[in-house]
Sequence to fold (132 residues):
Amino acid sequence: MRSSPRKQAVYTDNAPRPVGPYSQAILAGGCTLYISGQIPLDPVSGELVDGSFEDKVKRVLDNIKAIVEAAGGSMSDIVKVTVYLKDIGKFAQFNRVYSEYFKTVPPARVVVGVAELPLGAELEVEAIAYLC
Fold:
């Protein structure tokens, strides 16, 4: 992690390296964690995962979990999620997996259908957590 009084980059080897000039997450003011959009990249290989759509959703949410934990939080600290789906018809499939990660007091959320995502991914998820 890089330190400053107002802004701190968060990085973990348990989530994929960024595919561009951005941080995995930024901790602002010591309390608010902004997690960059995660696509279903394997943190070890750096490649998109194969498998079912559900496997890809799990990989994305596991990447988010690794990042929030690296900042000292947990999935229950996430207060807002934005989801981008290439196929909005997979909304119900996404929800089935998503609900396994947010069992009580799920965060506020928006789901957006999009035409394209980085590296041809089927979904991307970004999150905001409050850690104080």
Notes: The CA atoms of residues 85 and 113 lie 5 Å apart.
